[in-house]
Amino acid sequence: MRDIYQIIKRPLITEKTTLHKETLNKVTFEVDPKANKIEIKEAVEKLFNVKVLDVHTLKMKGKKRRMGRFQGKEKDWKKAIVTLRPGDHIEFFEGV
Fold first, then answer.
1. Helix residue ranges per DSSP H, 1-96
2. Whether this model's pTM surpasses 0.85
3. Is the pLDDT confidence value at 9 over 80?
4. 4-84 architecture in CATH?
């Protein structure tokens, strides 16, 4: 198994993910594109000391970007939506 810090890259903090965290107890992460659901579940449980009930994954396409006459594309990435057990929670910004 790979290192848990290679599997989970960063949490995604948006208005929608904050609402999901407060109401549905779901947390969203950017993960390694090669990681599967079992690896993601084990990494979250070890890293944050919580119990994971379910993992949903999505492959996100990179957006097209343009700088003058030159056109490029951002890299594709993978998103994981993790459902936590009732009573468990992960705090990213405590006291802010």
1. 4-7, 15-23, 37-48
2. yes
3. yes
4. 2-Layer Sandwich (3.30)
